[in-house]
Amino acid sequence: MAEEKRALLFVNKKKSAALSLEREISRILGGRGYLVRSFSFDSKTEPCNPGEYDISFSLGGDGTVLYAARTVSPLGVPIMPVNLGTLGFIASVHPGGWEETFLRWEAGTGIISRRLMLEISVERGGAKPLVHSCLNDAVVSASGIAKLIRLEVSAETSPGKQIDIGRFRADGLIVATPTGSTGYSVAAGGPIVDPEMDAVIINPICPFTLSNRPLVVPSGERVIALVEGEQRSSVLLTVDGQITCPLEPGDRIIARKAPFTAGLIASDRDVFYRALRTKLAWSGGTAHAGYEGGSDA
Fold it and tell me: What are the backbone angles phi and psi of residue 239, rounded to the nearest 5°?
C-alpha cells in the first residue's frame, strides 16, 4: 500500500479569495490521494504544529509566505507561494496557475528556489528571551517618541574572532537576507540583492552620521548588535515584521545563518527579475509605493 501523501495549507482569511482557493486545492489534492490539512489565521499569526508534510501552500501575500517559511522550513517542507496580496516579491504563483505548477513539482520538474534564512537570538545575561528564524529581516528600532537609538555592531568572521563594524546612532538597524532586500531594507536605502545569494545586509535606518552606509557581508559571519545603555527611547526587535521582543540595555542581538533554507516552488530568479520590472516600474509605468513587508500577509 502506497504511503499517504500530506499537504498543509496556510490560509490568510483576510484575503477574500483565500477560502474559495483553499476549497479548490483541497478538492484537487484530495482526488490525487493527499491528506490535506488547512491552517487559517486572521490579522495575527498563531502557533501551528506542522507535523510531517510533503508540500505546503501559502495562500495570501508575502507575509503569509514569511510565516509559512518559519513554520515548515526547519522540517524541509517546500512551500508553494500563491499570491493573493499586492506586491508579490516572494509570493509568485498566480492563483489560476497553481495546479499546473503543482503538477510540475509532483513530476519532479518544478523549480525550487533555495532561500537563505537567518536565526535571530537575543542574549540577556545568561538567558535567551528570543530565538527565531526569519526569511526577510530582523529590525532593531525605537518604540518610543524619540527615534534615535545607539547600537554597537560587530561581525564574527570566524569562531572567536570578532571585528567591530562601528557604533551607530540611527533610527534603527536592519539585518536582512537577500529575500528581504526588497522589503524594509530597500525602502531604507539598502541594495537589492539576488534572492539566491549567500549574503547578509546590514542597513542602518536614517543614521545620524551620513557616512554610515549599508554593508553586505558573507552569510557565514555572525552579525552582533549590542544595545548601549541610557537610551532616550525604549528599543524593540521585530522579526519578519511579525514577531516582536522588547530590548534592554546590554542585550545582544545575534543574527546567524540558519541550518536550513526555505524552499519556494516556482520562485526562480526569472520570477524575481520580472517582479522587479513590474513592481518597481523599471520597464515604465507606475511603481508600487511604500513598504508593506510582513503586513502584506
Answer: -110, 120
Residue of 131, 74, 91, 40 whose CA lies nearest to 292:
91
Domain 117-259 has CATH 2.60.200.30: yes
Q: What is the pLDDT of residues 80-126, one digit of tens each?
A: 999 997 767 888 899 999 999 999 999 999 999 999 999 999 999 99
Instruction: Pull the grid cell for residue 248.
Output: 534592554
**Pick from 259, 260, 262, 279: nearest CA to 271:** 279
Question: Which CATH number applies to 5-111+266-295: 2.60.40.10, 3.90.1150.200, 2.60.120.260, 3.40.50.10330?
Answer: 3.40.50.10330
Q: Say which DSSP state 79 is in.
A: E
DSSP 26: H
Amino acid at 133: S
The band of 1, judged by pLDDT with boundaries at 50, 70 and 90, is very low
Start-end of CATH 3.40.50.10330 domains in the chain:
5-111+266-295
What are the residues whose beta carbons fall under 8 Å from the beta carbon of 247, sequence distance 6 or more? Answer: 122, 140, 227, 234, 235, 236, 237, 253
3-state secondary structure of 196: coil
62 is catalytic: yes
* Residue 231, all three cell numbers: 537610551
Which value, in Å, is the radius of gyration of the alpha carbons in the chain? 20
Instruction: Show the cell assigned to 160.
Output: 572567536
Active-site residue, selected from the candidate residues 62, 137, 240, 296: 62
What crossing angle do the helices spanning 18-31 and 98-106 adopt, rounded to 10°?
30
> For residue 276, what are the contacts with CB-CB under 8 A and spacing of at least 6?
182, 192, 282
Predicted TM-score (pTM) of this structure: 0.90
For residue 146, pLDDT beyond 80: no
Residue 44 pLDDT more than 80? no
Are 280 and 287 contacting, i.e. CB atoms less than 8 angstroms apart?
A: yes
